[in-house]
Amino acid sequence: MALIHVNVVSTETSIYSGEARFVAVPGAAGELGILPGHTPLLTSMRPGTVRIEAEDGTETFLYIAGGFVEIQPHLVTVLADTAIRAENLDEARAAAAREAAMERLANQSGNIDYAKAQVELAEAVAQLQAINRIRRQTPR
Protein backbone atom coordinates (compact mmCIF):
# COMPACT_ATOMS: atom_id res chain seq x y z
CA MET A 1 0.00 0.00 0.00
CA ALA A 2 1.30 3.46 -0.91
CA LEU A 3 1.87 5.81 2.01
CA ILE A 4 2.49 9.50 2.41
CA HIS A 5 4.70 11.05 5.10
CA VAL A 6 2.96 13.64 7.31
CA ASN A 7 4.58 16.34 9.44
CA VAL A 8 2.44 18.65 11.60
CA VAL A 9 4.29 21.49 13.29
CA SER A 10 3.17 24.56 15.19
CA THR A 11 5.11 27.65 16.13
CA GLU A 12 6.01 25.91 19.40
CA THR A 13 6.80 22.28 18.48
CA SER A 14 6.43 19.32 16.16
CA ILE A 15 3.17 17.59 17.11
CA TYR A 16 3.05 14.70 14.63
CA SER A 17 5.39 12.93 12.23
CA GLY A 18 4.60 9.61 10.57
CA GLU A 19 3.31 7.65 7.60
CA ALA A 20 -0.34 7.72 6.55
CA ARG A 21 -2.58 6.31 3.87
CA PHE A 22 -4.94 9.31 3.98
CA VAL A 23 -4.91 12.86 5.40
CA ALA A 24 -7.77 15.38 5.61
CA VAL A 25 -7.07 19.05 6.35
CA PRO A 26 -9.41 22.06 6.71
CA GLY A 27 -8.41 24.07 3.64
CA ALA A 28 -9.47 27.68 3.27
CA ALA A 29 -12.03 26.72 0.61
CA GLY A 30 -13.16 23.45 2.22
CA GLU A 31 -11.83 20.12 3.45
CA LEU A 32 -8.97 18.64 1.43
CA GLY A 33 -8.52 14.88 1.16
CA ILE A 34 -4.93 13.87 0.47
CA LEU A 35 -3.75 10.49 -0.80
CA PRO A 36 -0.21 9.38 -1.77
CA GLY A 37 0.69 10.81 -5.18
CA HIS A 38 -1.37 14.00 -4.68
CA THR A 39 -0.62 16.90 -7.00
CA PRO A 40 1.68 19.50 -5.40
CA LEU A 41 -0.28 22.26 -3.66
CA LEU A 42 0.29 25.07 -1.19
CA THR A 43 -2.79 26.56 0.48
CA SER A 44 -3.93 28.26 3.66
CA MET A 45 -6.03 26.49 6.27
CA ARG A 46 -8.88 27.62 8.48
CA PRO A 47 -9.33 26.51 12.10
CA GLY A 48 -10.47 22.90 12.22
CA THR A 49 -9.49 19.26 12.50
CA VAL A 50 -6.69 17.44 10.72
CA ARG A 51 -7.47 13.73 10.38
CA ILE A 52 -4.57 11.36 9.77
CA GLU A 53 -5.35 7.73 8.90
CA ALA A 54 -2.39 5.42 9.54
CA GLU A 55 -1.59 2.31 7.51
CA ASP A 56 -3.34 0.09 10.09
CA GLY A 57 -6.53 2.19 9.95
CA THR A 58 -6.09 4.00 13.26
CA GLU A 59 -6.92 7.69 13.14
CA THR A 60 -5.24 10.66 14.78
CA PHE A 61 -7.17 13.91 15.16
CA LEU A 62 -5.40 17.23 15.63
CA TYR A 63 -6.99 20.63 16.17
CA ILE A 64 -5.31 23.46 14.27
CA ALA A 65 -6.04 27.17 14.49
CA GLY A 66 -5.14 27.94 10.89
CA GLY A 67 -1.87 28.09 9.01
CA PHE A 68 -0.64 26.57 5.76
CA VAL A 69 -0.34 23.11 4.24
CA GLU A 70 2.22 22.10 1.63
CA ILE A 71 1.36 18.96 -0.28
CA GLN A 72 3.88 17.00 -2.35
CA PRO A 73 3.27 13.56 -3.92
CA HIS A 74 4.91 11.76 -0.95
CA LEU A 75 4.91 14.44 1.77
CA VAL A 76 2.33 16.60 3.59
CA THR A 77 3.64 19.40 5.79
CA VAL A 78 1.12 21.23 7.99
CA LEU A 79 2.46 24.53 9.34
CA ALA A 80 -0.12 25.46 11.96
CA ASP A 81 -0.46 28.63 13.99
CA THR A 82 -1.54 26.37 16.88
CA ALA A 83 -1.78 22.58 16.88
CA ILE A 84 -3.19 20.43 19.69
CA ARG A 85 -4.02 16.74 19.80
CA ALA A 86 -7.81 16.51 19.94
CA GLU A 87 -7.76 14.38 23.09
CA ASN A 88 -5.88 17.22 24.88
CA LEU A 89 -8.55 19.86 24.19
CA ASP A 90 -10.54 21.20 27.13
CA GLU A 91 -14.26 21.11 26.27
CA ALA A 92 -15.37 23.38 29.12
CA ARG A 93 -12.76 25.98 28.21
CA ALA A 94 -13.68 25.87 24.50
CA ALA A 95 -17.40 26.20 25.34
CA ALA A 96 -16.68 29.18 27.61
CA ALA A 97 -14.59 30.82 24.87
CA ARG A 98 -17.41 30.29 22.36
CA GLU A 99 -19.95 31.88 24.70
CA ALA A 100 -17.66 34.83 25.45
CA ALA A 101 -17.03 35.47 21.73
CA MET A 102 -20.75 35.20 20.94
CA GLU A 103 -21.52 37.68 23.72
CA ARG A 104 -18.93 40.15 22.39
CA LEU A 105 -20.38 39.85 18.88
CA ALA A 106 -23.91 40.41 20.18
CA ASN A 107 -22.75 43.54 22.02
CA GLN A 108 -23.55 46.58 19.88
CA SER A 109 -20.95 48.83 21.53
CA GLY A 110 -18.28 50.42 19.35
CA ASN A 111 -15.50 49.27 21.70
CA ILE A 112 -15.27 45.74 20.27
CA ASP A 113 -12.90 44.35 17.67
CA TYR A 114 -15.40 42.37 15.59
CA ALA A 115 -12.74 40.65 13.47
CA LYS A 116 -10.94 39.39 16.57
CA ALA A 117 -14.19 38.21 18.15
CA GLN A 118 -15.12 36.36 14.94
CA VAL A 119 -11.72 34.62 14.86
CA GLU A 120 -12.08 33.65 18.54
CA LEU A 121 -15.57 32.28 17.84
CA ALA A 122 -14.33 30.27 14.82
CA GLU A 123 -11.48 28.78 16.86
CA ALA A 124 -13.72 27.83 19.78
CA VAL A 125 -16.28 26.21 17.46
CA ALA A 126 -13.50 24.32 15.65
CA GLN A 127 -12.16 23.02 18.98
CA LEU A 128 -15.62 21.79 20.00
CA GLN A 129 -16.02 20.11 16.60
CA ALA A 130 -12.65 18.38 17.04
CA ILE A 131 -13.73 17.10 20.45
CA ASN A 132 -17.00 15.79 19.00
CA ARG A 133 -15.22 14.09 16.08
CA ILE A 134 -12.85 12.20 18.36
CA ARG A 135 -15.79 11.15 20.58
CA ARG A 136 -17.60 9.69 17.57
CA GLN A 137 -14.49 7.78 16.48
CA THR A 138 -13.54 6.39 19.89
CA PRO A 139 -15.02 2.94 20.60
CA ARG A 140 -16.83 2.80 23.93
Automatic annotation (TrEMBL):
<dbReference type="GO" id="GO:0045259">
    <property type="term" value="C:proton-transporting ATP synthase complex"/>
</dbReference>
<keyword id="KW-0813">Transport</keyword>
<dbReference type="Pfam" id="PF00401">
    <property type="entry name" value="ATP-synt_DE"/>
</dbReference>
<comment type="subunit">
    <text>F-type ATPases have 2 components, CF(1) - the catalytic core - and CF(0) - the membrane proton channel. CF(1) has five subunits: alpha(3), beta(3), gamma(1), delta(1), epsilon(1). CF(0) has three main subunits: a, b and c.</text>
</comment>
<dbReference type="GO" id="GO:0046933">
    <property type="term" value="F:proton-transporting ATP synthase activity, rotational mechanism"/>
</dbReference>
<feature type="domain" description="ATP synthase F1 complex delta/epsilon subunit N-terminal">
    <location>
        <begin position="4"/>
        <end position="83"/>
    </location>
</feature>
<keyword id="KW-0375">Hydrogen ion transport</keyword>
<dbReference type="GO" id="GO:0005886">
    <property type="term" value="C:plasma membrane"/>
</dbReference>
<dbReference type="InterPro" id="IPR036771">
    <property type="entry name" value="ATPsynth_dsu/esu_N"/>
</dbReference>
<keyword id="KW-0139">CF(1)</keyword>
<comment type="similarity">
    <text>Belongs to the ATPase epsilon chain family.</text>
</comment>
<keyword id="KW-0406">Ion transport</keyword>
<dbReference type="InterPro" id="IPR001469">
    <property type="entry name" value="ATP_synth_F1_dsu/esu"/>
</dbReference>
<keyword id="KW-1003">Cell membrane</keyword>
<dbReference type="InterPro" id="IPR020546">
    <property type="entry name" value="ATP_synth_F1_dsu/esu_N"/>
</dbReference>
<dbReference type="Pfam" id="PF02823">
    <property type="entry name" value="ATP-synt_DE_N"/>
</dbReference>
<dbReference type="InterPro" id="IPR036794">
    <property type="entry name" value="ATP_F1_dsu/esu_C_sf"/>
</dbReference>
<comment type="function">
    <text>Produces ATP from ADP in the presence of a proton gradient across the membrane.</text>
</comment>
<protein>
    <recommendedName>
        <fullName>ATP synthase epsilon chain</fullName>
    </recommendedName>
</protein>
<dbReference type="InterPro" id="IPR020547">
    <property type="entry name" value="ATP_synth_F1_esu_C"/>
</dbReference>
<feature type="domain" description="ATP synthase epsilon subunit C-terminal">
    <location>
        <begin position="87"/>
        <end position="131"/>
    </location>
</feature>
<dbReference type="GO" id="GO:0005524">
    <property type="term" value="F:ATP binding"/>
</dbReference>
<keyword id="KW-0472">Membrane</keyword>
<keyword id="KW-0066">ATP synthesis</keyword>
